[in-house]
Design the sequence.
């Protein structure tokens, strides 16, 4: 009986031992640049390409990596440093938000750094304000 009392006083955990709960996976990836916030369903990512960024002129401080994400409605181009570190979390659906930081802060060796995000919609009308319709317009 004594052991039952001590067992009841212990904090209860939902699971222990061989079961591990993870936070729910995000359904969208949000890309935030200086002007907009874009959201794309994670499951719509068709393919990605990681490559060296084509250098324009003599830009020695330009980010060396380019990661192109192909969605049915747009291409998302990320430029930065160590973008190969994003691949694992990206294909596992664990990336929820990517924001561009133009100015380098304290670099973390184990982290990717995105300095530029460019979203290229397949339909450029998405970017024109005059194409937006309100619910009441006919």
Sequence:
């Amino acid at each position: 009986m004594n052991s039952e009392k001590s067992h009841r006083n212990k904090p209860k955990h939902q699971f222990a031992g061989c079961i591990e709960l993870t936070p729910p996976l995000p359904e969208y990836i949000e890309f935030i640049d200086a002007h907009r916030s874009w959201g794309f369903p994670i499951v719509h990512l068709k393919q990605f390409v990681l490559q060296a960024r084509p250098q324009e002129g003599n830009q020695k401080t330009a980010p060396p990596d380019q990661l192109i994400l192909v969605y049915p409605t747009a291409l998302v181009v990320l430029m930065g440093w160590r973008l190969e570190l994003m691949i694992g979390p990206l294909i596992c659906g664990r990336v929820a938000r990517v924001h561009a930081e133009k100015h380098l802060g304290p670099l973390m060796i184990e982290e990717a750094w995105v300095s530029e995000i460019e979203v290229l919609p397949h339909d450029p009308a998405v970017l024109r304000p005059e194409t937006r319709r309100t619910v009441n317009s006919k």
Observations:
- The chain has a mean pLDDT of 80.
- The first strand starts at residue 28 and ends at 32.
- The helical segments are 2-9, 87-91.
